[in-house]
Amino acid sequence: MKTHDKIRVLREAQKITQEDLAEKLCMSASGYSKIERGETQLSIGRLQQIADILSVSVFELMPNGGGIIQTLNGAYHFNGTFNQYGDNEKQNVEKLEVQINYLKQIIEQKDKEIAIQKELLDMYRSCSSN
Question: Can you tell me which residues the record assigns to a coiled coil (predicted)?
């Protein structure tokens, strides 16, 4: 199923009108209807906005196979296809995210310990110089 078809199906399933979704996207209803007809190339940002409103991930809106392209002006656009991750890859990504968060917490703790040790060292130096 193509991205614009998925968007329409999800919107209808949630009983959201095109007008309501267009309003949430700060665009005209006719502009939004072009998205659902596949007449408008979606930027990644716009796709993310739609996914957020429909409470789904961007990956759920993308069809299988293909990718994201970057234009000469630096903007990223969805070219109509995307490599969808399998359950195994999703689980691996989730595990890595948990590990990253854990390591960030450890770094924060170490930074606090270093700050305390620096304070103690400064206090020791000031006491020993007196």
Answer: none
75-96 pLDDT, tens digit per residue, is 544 445 444 445 567 777 888 8
pLDDT band at 67 (very low <50, low <70, confident <90, very high): very low
Q: Say whether pTM exceeds 0.85.
A: no
Mapping DSSP to helix (H, G, I), strand (E, B) and coil, where does residue 77 land? strand
C-alpha closest to that of 55 among 96, 16, 27 = 16
53 contacts 21 by C-beta, under 8 angstroms: yes
**Cα atoms found within 13 Å of the Cα of residue 53, Cβ hemisphere only:** 23
